[in-house]
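Researcher: Next sequence.
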Amino acid sequence: MSEYEHTCMIRGDGGRTIRAILDRICNKWTLLIVATLDRGSVRFTDLHQQIPGISQRMLTLTLRNLERDGLVSRTVYAEVPPRVEYALTPTGKSLIPPALALAGWAIEHVSHIEASREAYQTRNP
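Model: Next structure:
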């Protein structure tokens, strides 16, 4: 039996909980948002400007989900106009080391993966 074979069955729900968490963490925008917030609290508009290609709607939805999951905190300041800042929680900060490890793995293997893709494309036009 593999060391990791049981991991999706930990909660006895057929892996639904683990898959849902991994889906959230590994989606297109989460790691970019988390990496941006690693520098400190950021206002919504600044966050939107720092993440190229993300729509306001997708940023809003992703931040809402990250807040719900306890990775991001949202602070509203009673000013005119209202100021809203987002920051990583301790749980969100704990995601940085594994995310960096994954990014490091991707950087280390990018040339092999690109070569494999080209070879595949040649075999399967």
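Model: The chain has a mean pLDDT of 88. Strands lie at 42-43, 72-77, 83-88.
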